[in-house]
Every structure is written in C-alpha cells, then in structure tokens.
Amino acid sequence: MMRKLCVISALGVAGIAATAQAHHSFVREYDPQNVVTVEGTVTEVWYQNPHSRVYFEDADKVLWEAETYPRNILDRRGWKHDDLKPGDVVVVTGRRARNGSPRLQILSIVRPSDGWEGVGFEADSID
Question: What global pTM score does this model have?
C-alpha cells in the first residue's frame, strides 16, 4: 500500500511540474527592450489556453509565432475565435524572443483591410 501511495504521489508531482513548465515567464522568453513591427499573412490561429497564438508569414517567407493572452481573457476583451483567419494580412508589433527566433509577445495586432485590432499585452506588462 505504501508503495502505491509513493507512485501516486510521484505522478502527481510530475503532473504539477509539467503544468508549471507549460506556463512560462514572458520576461524570460521575450526582450522588453527589443520591440519590432512585422507585417505578414496569417497562416494559422490557435485560440486556446494557456496562451493564444497567431502564426503568420512575412514578405521574406519567414514564419512568425506571435503569442498573446489565453482565450478566456481574449473573450472578455472582445477578441473572438473567428476574428482572424488564414489569409488575413496583419501588422504585429511585439517583443522579440530573447533567443532570436521569429517569435513575438503581441503588444498590438491590426488587420489593415478593415481596421480590426486584436488584444495584445500592455507595453508596461511583465506578464
């Protein structure tokens, strides 16, 4: 019986550790001093928890990953799951990934064709 309890406890701790790793520190991932603006065409939208993402390809065919709030926060702030679709042209301003990869923490995202604006992090946010 004691052995079963140890195994169950170990599995529980491993599950908690995996969950904690899935939600990362934005300050660790993104450089608040390196803000860029990139225009591109949406290829995919992940409207989910723990962070929603917009994937888009720029004019040089570089695929970017832009990360924002989870869907429940986006819902509360008026961004719906079908607001962006593959093929939409967007202009994304965000903090660059510290490791130099084509990743951004979204500060603003705009679809110029109709002026739609999505929810991004505040400029002074350290979320």
Answer: 0.77
